[in-house]
Amino acid sequence: MKRKQRQQKCLKMLHRLILSITLPILMVLMLSYKPKPLSPEEVLSSIPLVDSFRVILSDKLFSETYEVWFRMPLDHSNPNGLSFPLRVYYSHNGFDKPMVVVVDGYTMYTSKANEVTCIVDGNQITIEHRFFSKSRPMDSIPWSYLNIRQAAADAHLVISAFKPFYHGKWISTGISKSGQATIYHRRFYPTDVNVSIPYVAPLNFSSEDERVYKFLDSVGTPECRERIHDFQVQLFERKNEILPLFEELAASKGWNFTMGLERAYILSILEYSFSFWQWGFSCSSIPASSSTAKELFKHWLDVNPFTFFEENEVDKVRPFFYQAMTEIGMYGYRVKPFSRYLSDTTNITFSFTMPKGHQAVFNASTMRDIDRWIKDSGNYMLYIYGQNDAWSATAVDPGGKTNAVKMVCPGGSHSSRIKDFPPELQDSIYRVLGRWLDLRLPANGDIKLNPD
Q1: Residue 376 half-sphere exposure, CB side, CA atoms within 13 Å?
Q2: Does residue 51 sit in the same domain as residue 199?
Q3: Which residue range is the domain that position 274 belongs to?
Q4: Which of 1-10, 117-126, 159-168, 338-347 bottoms out in mean pLDDT, i.e. has the lowest?
Q5: Same domain, 122 and 231
Q6: For range 253-282, the mean pLDDT
Q7: pLDDT at residue 446 is higher than 60
Q8: Is the domain of 125 the same as that of 222?
Q9: Is the pTM value of this prediction over 0.85?
Q10: Structural domain includes residue 19
């Protein structure tokens, strides 16, 4: 009898012990449980930093797309301080599919499916860069908060908001300055995504990176480079014929050149060689010196639209120029090859684009830090470049310590995409990405990509 009582007592004690262990665990699980979202709209409604959202026209790859406004800290070291609105496009394809994050470097220009999104058949988030378009404080731009670390933190907050709902692979990507922003974000938040694919992203070490001059002196054939130089000389020599055409076009377009029309004319001549290689023009398209002024002008306009120096257009991208002159670097224009036509005695930089009251003081340590991270820790990075793109002059050098891969499209330009590579190189790219992401790529077989 006593033995049976002892057994019952032991069983009660064991029961209480089990309850004391399991009940708190069950309570935690119940309190922390969040039901799986039934729709993307429920996802957005559950994110505290989202101030508003609306449905917009969706790419055929997605079931729905939203324009979303996040409330973003102006200074991420003081998250409870001032904030500003940051625009995001959010496109849903399936909660079980990969998420592609387009880390934009400028104003967002499209919500269409990115090339990478098409390749992996994924969802997509596109994040506008701080201080472009309406993603900025209402009154004025606080320039001291425009730097790569703050912008990377913007992307991190947006990614963190969506991470709990999408458990597939995460990929970040971007083109040109957006490719740069993709690298910078990955440097500061390496675990936000599994893989990054920056396209045609320069890594400049100066506000006048002289590697560009060396590139322009060696790209293509000597005959082509001579034709480019001769064309620029024609624009100087025949200024009296061609400048009136420039004036007429500027008047018809309502362009405003605060530097003066003649100065814009000169800078546009100097810009020609960079733009020619950047956008992949053919040397056969360059008019002969015997061509009419209108023929010369038409080709010049095709290669180098003059709005690059137009005040309203400069103002739209002034945040880019501010970053170029202070952190992310730029190129300049050599005076010596055209010294007989110029009053300038030193190379010309883009310091004239700085906001009023701000000096162009470049912090070289920022990009040196990025370069060190790329070489020492930049794993699972796929860099895409075009062989003849002028921005390839300052392309990333991944080194040999990481598993990063750099692919250069033969004869390619700043418009080079994975689809532009020869088939055997495309296959190499798909194999690398498929191995890193544990996916069979391209996910939909023969994919049809949206034009950029």
Answers
A1: 7
A2: yes
A3: 211-353
A4: 1-10
A5: no
A6: 97
A7: no
A8: no
A9: yes
A10: no
